[in-house]
Amino acid sequence: xxxxxxxxxxxxxxxxxxxxxNNQAVSFKELLAKYKNAPIVLDHWATWCGPCIDEFTNxxxxxxxxxxxxxxxxxxxxxxxxAINQMNxxxxxxxxxxxxxEVKDYVVYSNYxxxxxxxxxxxxxxxxxxxLNIDLPKPSTNSEFRxxxxxxxxx
Length: 155
Prior knowledge:
Layout: H1 11-14, E1 17-19, E2 25-27, H2 28-34, E3 40-45, H3 50-58, H4 60-68, E4 72-77, H5 84-94, E5 98-101, H6 103-113, E6 120-124, E7 131-133, H7 143-153
Parallel strand pairs: 3-4, 4-5
Antiparallel strand pairs: 1-2, 1-5, 3-6, 6-7
């Protein structure tokens, strides 16, 4: 497994296209640039993943609190095109800043990050979007989640 911690993203990952709520394409590089100067938690999910959807409710309180402190939460759905309507309903219901990644791109992305299951939470730093933690606890663990963030984000 490649060590991805604090390493520049490979060009093939930066060039991956993601699709927003309106199905507008944005590259992973553009997505990182959109949140420059803020640490980011990438939350990987899908409409068919019960634990992912449960976490939108169970982790809502801590996510809301951390957003007020400047942490960004970006949701990456691995749904296929035929699930866009259901995905968009959930994005609206839970007010997610979410993007969909095509399956072919997710294969490359998940192999690079060694993502084998969802939900999965990854912390990126605010300076350059590099990975700081590849496997955060889920937000609903609250104190455990915040403890890892505090340890990781303190320089």
